[in-house]
Amino acid sequence: MTRDIVTPTRRRLLAAGAAGVLAPTLAGAQRPPVAKETALMQVHFAFADQRFSATLEDNPTARDFAALLPLDLTIEDYSTNEKISYLPRKLTMEGARPFGHEAPGDICYYAPWGNLALYHAGYRHSSGLVRLGRLDAGFAPLLKRGTFPLRVERQA
């Protein structure tokens, strides 16, 4: 009885390696998702002639903020990069941790002062700052200068 000896070639080795990498991926694609998806909360902001929506993060501070809605507040300019609005009470800081990828359009809670911070220019994370969400269509509405009544409510 004779056996044909198959010599490994580069092509065969690459094919075997690809099969080893793809097999677990393809098998995993057939499994049902393990984690349950969380519905994202949409909120609506209105001040002066500006109306815009935002999507809140799924964190305890954002959920605590959503529990306060609807809110009638005052929004005002602060520094050169944000608008702020003071909340009627402090929000929970449970699970708060540093974050990155700060960008205009972020909505944050600043715990030391108990206020919302809506950013229309660059900023950096600081202690006590929690990202609540992001504006859905950019930060242009925040460029309207001045102090105005602000309405915040869950989006229908």
How would you briefly describe this protein structure?
The chain is built from two helices and eight strands. The protein has helices spanning 10-29, 60-68; strands at 42-47, 50-56, 71-78, 82-86, 106-110, 115-119, 129-135, 148-154.
Protein architecture, described:
There is one protein chain. The chain contains two helices and eight strands. It is α+β, with helices and mostly antiparallel strands. It has a single domain, classed as Beta Barrel (Cyclophilin), CATH 2.40.100.20. It has an eight-stranded antiparallel barrel.
Note poorly predicted spans: 13-38
**CATH architecture level-2 label:** Beta Barrel
Structural class: alpha+beta
Shape: globular
Would you give the CATH topology? Answer: Cyclophilin
- Into how many domains do the coordinates divide? 1
List the strand order in the largest sheet.
Answer: 1-2-7-5-6-4-3-8
Give the biggest beta sheet. Answer: 8 strands, antiparallel, barrel
What's the overall average pLDDT, rounded?
Answer: 83
Strand fraction: 25-35%
> Number of helical runs?
2
Label this structure with key terms.
32% strand, eight-stranded antiparallel barrel, 156 residues, 2 helices
Helices and strands in order, then pairings?
Layout: H1 10-29, E1 42-47, E2 50-56, H2 60-68, E3 71-78, E4 82-86, E5 106-110, E6 115-119, E7 129-135, E8 148-154
